[in-house]
Amino acid sequence: MTYTIHEVAEKLGISTYSIRYYNDHGMLPFVQRDANNNRIFHDTDLEWLSMIVCLRETGMSVKAIKHYQDLIQEGDDTINERYAMMCAQQEQTLAEIADLKKHLDTINYKVAHYASILENNEPDSFVPSNLRTEAVGK
Amino acid sequence: MTYTIHEVAEKLGISTYSIRYYNDHGMLPFVQRDANNNRIFHDTDLEWLSMIVCLRETGMSVKAIKHYQDLIQEGDDTINERYAMMCAQQEQTLAEIADLKKHLDTINYKVAHYASILENNEPDSFVPSNLRTEAVGK
DNA sequence: GCAGACCTTCGTCTAACACGAAGGTAAGTA
DNA sequence: TACTTACCTTCGTGTTAGACGAAGGTCTGC
């Protein structure tokens, strides 16, 4: 089973630009070409790509992902470093989720604030209207 | 109580570059200057900045934040649009948290995988060692 | 035998900063 | 007074991770 770059893009929810970018930067070294030089992707490539997407979306840089992939290719001696990388990524992702939840609270507050104004038909000028009261809404 | 740009940067965990960038792009229109033309920040500026940080970290573009701020300055007629913006942001943030949690599962799997290899002193070559088995680790 | 739909590579453009350089000002100190 | 240190400013370029258009090749269907 093989896929075109467009099929892969759709399957993984990323752009063809990104896929070429990853390929050009050595992050997909096994992608084959057909007689017309078109990239052809196998399921294993898809798996790798989805790992790349996972790492990118959790904030790992392209450079670091490339390094991680190089480590894998170097073999068993690099398992310690790979382990460290994934631990760091785990921690960072947990921290980001926590951050987002905090920010979500602020946004929830804003939504409720506006909803109550709209419901009660209370104009904002009910409260002295200036930017200050708007800013964080504590 | 006023603050220097460095104090604000430290307080909010962002760079002075970012603060100047936001200021230069009209997102902090009330920041005053001292006799030497240095920016001086008040608590209300801090509140605004922390709202900017919240929106940026939940993925709103600088341009959209500027627009939101313009809406606030335009007054009560824009509450509907502001409400819509915050609702969209709320939804997007919820989606991103969900995404991150999914990715975290994948990373957790990797961490456990490496941990078990290191604990049992099992070399990776125990399993036919190639990139494929590494990729997602399902 | 040509249009349309793909594909490629190449090159420029963008957002949101990051950072260095050049130069001004203020405070501490020898 | 002169000098150093430590800020600040503006200006301009560099970076990351793509997004996108243009030019041109190739396959397919009519």
UniProtKB/TrEMBL annotation, chains A, B:
Residues 2-71 form the HTH merR-type domain. SMART domains: HTH_MERR. Transmembrane segments: none annotated. The keyword Zinc-finger does not apply. Keywords: DNA-binding. GO terms for molecular function: DNA binding; DNA-binding transcription factor activity. It comes from the Bacteria. This is Transcriptional regulator.
